[in-house]
Amino acid sequence: MTLKYLIPSLICFVGTTLFAQERPNIVLIMTDDQGYGDLSIMGNPVLETPHIDSLAREGASMDAFYVSPVCSPTRASLMTGRYAYRTRLVDTFKGRSMMDPEEFTIAEALSDSGYKTGIFGKWHLGDNYPLRATDQGFQESLIHLGGGLGQPSEPRENNRRYTNAILFRNNQQVQTQGYCTDVYFDGAIEFIDQSLQAKKPFFSYIATNAPHSPYHDVPEALYRKYKNKDLSPVLLGNDKDADTVARVYAMVENIDQNVGKLLAHLDKREAARNTIVIFMVDNGPNTRRYIGPSRGKKNEVHDGGIRSPFFMRWPAQLKAGAHNDQIAAHIDVMPTLLEAAQVTLPPNHPFDGRSILPLLKGESPEWPDRSLILQIHRGDAPTPLHHIAVREQRWKLAHPTGFSNDIMPSDIPFELYDMEADPGETDNLYEQRPEISKRLMRTYERWFADVSSTRPDNYAPPRIILGTPHETHTTLSTQDMRATDDGGAWLLSFENNKTYDVEFLWKEPVANLTLELQVGNVRKTLNIKSATDTDRIQNIKIPNGNAALSARILNGNKKQIPYHIVLIQK
Q: For residue 427, what is the enclosing H or E element?
């Protein structure tokens, strides 16, 4: 029996009946590309975020909280309490952003212990069975696919819309009305009401895709508000970024308004006192803009790229306005929330994180210095020492070799910073303090060897499984297509000897085209003469087992590869 399916049977319950006290509800809010400095409470001189700010004033804050430089690794760590490299996830696209389905998630742990679980917004850990949010413990799901609206997984008819977007409710395509962030919060509020009516504790994960790009579709009134403001105090790059920042800030204030709506609803339902509300972000800001005392942005391993606010309001347990400066990270969220929910996993459950609940409560537990390691870069597998940050309470080792580089450049020096004396990372002490540099280097080397040996063939991607009743229409996009020498392929596994129709979808009509489909050893050819944006090959019998699927153009415009390929189980 695998670890994932063993753990639920070992979850412990505390109390004479089921629990010693009423378990808290949980709302976890994580925005996309917002950045540590995109809040007025963080000193931003332009933005207005009173409702998110209130979570800090009325709750407890971790003042040195870290996430990964980009989104998917943060999401994998948030869901599992483990470093992303343990989960087979190594990047954000090209089949590298798929979390191993054997991972045991916070949604599974809470669902198994009696919580209602819902996700609203962004999952980004796999679009198909068995990788979807609903396969990983979420009972209710209202999400977009892939990395975001305007990205390769979205239905072609969505046309990059944030307003009236096509989303997926429990894996079924739905047309929504309203701005996407409003839709996610409205869905979460409806889910909360259903949970309260059922007298069930709830876990509501609200993961907005705002303020991620594209920026063309933002709340218009808020855009005009920031467009008419003087943004020079927050612009760290070129002045031409002002329009983009105005659009980002419009999305951020819209998020804040929705947080206010959510908090007011919890008050109205008299549920606020025993509801945990957490606010955090997934990585640094997506432009060079105000980031407080730090330097850097999304994709980077300086603090501006990896530091997140972390506010946790829980009136029943936490003192308003409390702060703690111990370093903490995304890997700590799952163990923290499970402790709050009185869900105890076996002591040997392989968390990398630890519960920070005692720190948030203002207690003084024994808390030895720890090391947090953050690494991510493009490519099918990680390279040792490539684009890393190693953070202790005082010291930080960085090797900023560039997220976008598949191959590590050889001419980028290492950096060492005293974060107590130099939070802006301006004085590189790597050569002056060799004893510290070597110690942190050894820490990193032990960590990399450990996470890389989590599973046999540790960085081989999970496979999409077809042929089960869990997903009878499987849509493939370039989000999950692995790069190959002759284009790309999807890594699949087939069960139950099914027959399929394979449908090809293009964004624009194609004509005079010959396309070859290959699934393992099965090859089929499709000839398209008249202009069409949809065609299919019918009744393909695919044997059981692992197979790569690819489609290539034999005759015609080589660039006219289908936008999506849909396998329809018969």
A: none
